[in-house]
């Protein structure tokens, strides 16, 4: 059985962003695993896996990504 997700619980996320990450992005995601790929339509995508944070941290991260003009593709809870 999976545990409940709450506002204050530390959860593990997978976050996909358009583009290739540079070193300045990587610090925002803590100890996350980083994978870059090029999709069939030549779009570059960077996936950060095992991103551990609570909901407030996730909202702050999304705001930071948006603030610097990076396109957010998806956010998924890893269970």
Summarize the structure.
The chain is α+β, with helices and mostly antiparallel strands.
What is the strand and helix layout of this fold?
Layout: E1 11-18, H1 23-26, E2 33-38, E3 44-53, H2 55-67, E4 72-77
Tell me the number of strands.
4
Percent strand equals 35-45%
**Unreliable sequence segments:** none
- Compute the number of helices: 2
Explain this structure:
With 79 residues, this protein is an alpha+beta fold. The chain is built from 2 helices and 4 strands. Strands 2-3-1-4 form a 4-stranded antiparallel sheet. The protein starts with 10 loop residues before the first strand and ends with a strand. The mean pLDDT is 90.
């Amino acid at each position: 059985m999976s545990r409940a997700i709450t506002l204050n619980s530390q959860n593990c996320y997978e976050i996909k962003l358009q583009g290739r990450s540079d070193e300045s992005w990587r610090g925002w995601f803590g100890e996350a695993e980083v994978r870059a790929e090029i999709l069939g339509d030549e779009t570059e995508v960077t996936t950060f896996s095992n991103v551990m944070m609570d909901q407030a941290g996730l909202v702050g991260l999304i705001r930071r990504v948006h603030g610097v003009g990076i396109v957010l593709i998806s956010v998924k809870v890893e269970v």
